[in-house]
Please model this.
Amino acid sequence: MPLRQMTASGPGRRRLPGTARLLALGQEFAKFGTVGALGILVNFGVFNLCRGITRLPVVRCSVVATVVAIAFNYLGLRYFTYRDRDKGRRSREVVLFAAFSALGLVIENGVLYIATYGFGWGSPFQSNVFKFLGIGTATLFRFWAYRAWVFRALPGGGPRHGRPHDAPAGTPDDPAAYHPETTAPPP
Model:
């Protein structure tokens, strides 16, 4: 039985044991990391291209690169990493993704800003090192935020088509009921 079909708890359902939950989290993190690694390549490519062909300051080039990478990452996360997550509230998802991505942008580019203007470390090599450190710090924040708030798990761990006709409202099969085993509180 696939992992996501066994994740819900309740009458007649099995909850994953601790090691299986860690394995599922590891698989999720690996998918997130794959999209993220490709996003880092996009980010660094745009960053160094911008620095090489424009006269924009280093942090502005970094912000441009981060915005391009955010757009790339949204597509990868929605259609690869979290394709089995709730798609019912797409506008909410996009707004939350943009908000948490903006916070990640501030974290990522804040590290570069402090290194460049606070400590004077602005050579191309130093800029790339601190951009990488900023991306790493922001990635930890984004993983938590996207997982908990943006790409929310469906109750029961899989797609829902509604509760059975004979089930009373508020049962584990009711998609409108709050399920504490999901990763975020109700909206």
The radius of gyration is 20 Å. The helical segments are 18-53, 58-81, 90-118, 124-150.
